[in-house]
Amino acid sequence: MVLLEPEVVLEVAVDVDRDSVGRWRHPVRPHRIRTDLDVPQVPLFGKDNASV
Hints:
Order of helices and strands: EE
Radius of gyration: 14 Å
Strand order of the largest sheet: 1-2
Structural class: mainly beta
């Protein structure tokens, strides 16, 4: 396993629909690169952070 350091923040568009097995019905789509945010400003997934 190789750990990577993130360099940019990318906003994505997702559809939360799942099929009967629990798989995502639609792929995640890139939306835009967030040049207004630095990587340390983005909270970890699942963490509550109202500043972003």
